[in-house]
Write a structure and sequence with these properties.
The complex is a heterodimer of chains A (about 290) and B (about 325). Chain A is mainly α and about 290 residues long. In chain A, about 70% of the residues lie in helices and about 0% in strands. In chain A, strands 1-2 form a two-stranded antiparallel sheet. Chain A starts with 5 loop residues before the first helix and ends with a helix. Helix content of chain B is about 75%, strand content about 0%. Classes of the chains: A mainly alpha (about 290), B mainly alpha (about 325).
Chain lengths: ~290, ~325
């Protein structure tokens, strides 16, 4: 790898990292606030991309198709949380059994509906490749990164400025105290789960502009999202964004050095290593759920 | 111990009856069904050790099953058909991988263990696809016993039955052991267990290794049963889903959970498949995804409504009244 390539690799890594951020902030939110490990996150990402692609083929404008996918994900997330809050469900492996079942169900339904072949969205419509002087960029990548960062910004402002956001942060901090203070915890957590899956769909939308996608790939995105959330800190949106950008750049540099196929193995190894080292960062999840 | 001896005797008598039925039956499909049941009885019983008694959710059975299959395929490339040797190798390697996954994640509580086992299946699939020594999608042709098709089927059946009988006898003895008590203590209250002197991490890791070794052994037999191993057929999430469901339906806190759950779920799957064909939902061939969708739905339903399984119906209700 020559040094002349370095700026190009870093910019490419940042653009990919932004997409990773979109794919993981929803998971960070549900894990941080509700202390529940949403294993359906990856398949929601894929399904959103596939739904958008199908609507796009049917002639629906891309922006509207993306909005429909995100709204559908929001409703599905609320429905999943409804199940999780049924009495006794969270005793059963912390609700993980319901989520695992939902993951298998969604994965199979997505395969039945869209098949298992990798799909791509036609990105020629976004115009010619841009020349930045030191590198050339596909406009679809810029748009994907833009969507991702805009979404992350909206979520940050929402959590820090709105009263609902304040309630969400209160629940993340201490659900029992939040309940005493009059916050309708179960209603707010339903909205949190909805927002979490809606952001998974937003991740799916920006992933669909950059990568190929298919139902079986959902595991890959689940691995990436979990790694990023664990690295960045559960519930910390800023930390998650930073970890995502970091992973994007790490991958971009590593990709120049090792064969592309080994990357997922490297990332899984990284996840195991992080679990060895960063035990206290995981302590948050051991607490009881609301 | 009189009761335990009775139970072991019942297992042996049952196995003798089943093998007599299978070995005299003219129908190859009967033998094939009994073979699958025996395989799942063994794997589910192994799963129950940590999953039911210890209360830790293992979603990675398929990963260990596939590891056993791959070890068998690769070892028998040089040794030829050596069923006992490859079975031992498959079980040992699966247990070692379980140690590597379990050591970091079982020291933690909560869902980390479940997540890492879920991702394991995906990652071993990737490794076998991308590293040269595993030959990627080309896979391995596995030497099979030197018998005709019906003979091979019976031979394979006897291996699975042997595994099922061994694990069931193990479960009967395990059910009464202090090891099982330690796991129950961990399930009920891990802090209290730790205070009472239970080495919680070590106990959980050993339980996980036992279940994984059984899955590896089953994968090992499966490798020469099908005669061909490649990433997609070896690391199929369906094995994890099936075992999980069988354990929960049968009752994951009883030694016979696998014995009850495996035939029930397989019968249910068979019923669903034939119904789907009869109703002509998909034409003559029902896609595997349909089966999986139903199983996923079933997991959701069970998680909500039917948490103790069949065995739960017979559980003593001690302590319920106190709460």
């Amino acid at each position: 790898m020559s040094m002349a390539l370095l700026p190009e690799l870093l910019v490419a890594g940042l653009l990919i990292g932004a997409v990773y951020a979109a794919a993981s902030i929803g998971l960070s939110l549900t894990m941080g606030v509700l202390r529940v490990f949403n294993v359906t996150h990856g398949i929601v990402i894929m399904a959103a991309g596939l739904l958008m692609a199908e609507l796009d083929r049917d002639g629906v404008p891309l922006l509207l198709a993306a909005a429909i996918a995100i709204l559908a994900a929001f409703l599905i997330g609320m429905a999943i949380d409804r199940l999780l809050q049924l009495p006794g469900v969270s005793e059963n492996f912390g609700g993980l059994l319901v989520l695992f079942g939902a993951m298998v169900l969604f994965e199979s339904l997505a395969s039945l509906r869209w098949g298992n072949e990798q799909q791509v969205i036609n990105t020629d419509r976004f115009g010619e490749v841009l020349d930045l002087g030191f590198m050339r960029v596909f406009p679809a990548r810029l748009i994907a990164a833009g969507i991702a960062l805009a979404g992350a910004l909206v979520l940050l402002v929402f959590l820090e400025r709105s009263s609902l956001g304040r309630a969400i942060r209160a629940i993340a901090h201490d659900p029992d105290a939040a309940r005493i203070l009059g916050i309708p915890v179960s209603r707010v957590s339903r909205i949190v789960f909805g927002i979490g899956t809606a952001f998974a769909a937003l991740g799916g939308v920006s992933i669909a502009l950059v990568f190929s996608f298919a139902p079986p790939s959902h595991f890959r995105w689940l691995v990436w999202a979990i790694l990023i959330v664990v690295l960045g800190g559960m519930g910390s949106i800023r930390g998650t964004i930073l970890a995502a950008l970091g992973l994007g750049m790490f991958e971009s540099l590593a990709g120049a050095l090792i064969r592309f196929q080994y990357l997922p193995i490297l990332v899984y190894g990284l996840l195991v290593a992080v679990l060895y080292v960063k035990r206290d960062g995981l302590a948050a999840l051991q607490e009881r759920r609301v | 111990m009189r009761r335990a001896s009775m139970q072991i005797l019942l297992v042996l008598l049952g196995a003798a009856a089943v093998s007599a039925w299978a070995l005299t039956s003219a129908e190859r499909s009967t033998v094939a069904i009994l073979m699958t049941v025996a395989m799942y009885v063994a794997m589910t019983s192994g799963w129950i050790v940590l999953g039911g008694y210890g209360g830790y959710l293992n979603l990675g059975t398929a990963g260990f099953f596939g590891i056993g299959a791959y070890v068998t395929a690769m070892v028998s490339q040089t040794t030829g058909f050596q069923p006992f040797l490859t079975l031992a190798a498959g079980a040992v390697v699966a247990a070692v991988v379980a140690l590597l996954i379990g050591a970091p994640t079982l020291r933690l509580r909560g869902p980390y263990f479940a997540i890492m086992t879920l991702l394991l299946t995906f990652i071993v699939g990737l490794v076998t696809q991308n590293f040269g020594i595993f030959r990627g999608a080309i896979g391995f042709r596995v030497p099979r016993p030197d018998l005709d098709a019906a003979g091979t089927l019976r031979y394979t059946f006897l291996f699975y039955l042997g595994l099922a009988v061994l694990t069931l006898i193990g479960m009967v003895l395990f059910h009464r052991s202090t090891f099982a008590h330690r796991l129950r203590a961990i399930r009920e209250d891990e802090d209290a267990a730790e205070i009472l002197g239970v080495h919680t991490a070590r106990t959980k890791i050993v339980a996980f290794m036992i279940g994984s070794a059984v899955a590896g052994a089953c994968g090992s037999v499966w490798a020469w049963q099908v005669g061909f191993v490649e990433p997609v057929n070896a690391f199929n999430l369906l094995y994890s889903v099936n075992v999980l469901l069988m354990a929960i339906i049968g009752g994951s806190r009883a030694w016979y959970g696998g014995l009850v759950g495996a035939p029930l779920l397989l019968a249910l799957e068979n019923f669903l498949r034939t119904t789907a064909v009869r109703l002509e939902l998909f034409g003559p061939v029902v896609p595997t995804e349909f089966n999986r969708a139903v199983l996923g739905f079933l997991i959701v339903l069970i998680a909500i409504f039917f948490r103790r399984g069949i065995a739960g119906l017979f559980e003593r209700r001690v302590g319920r009244a106190v709460i």
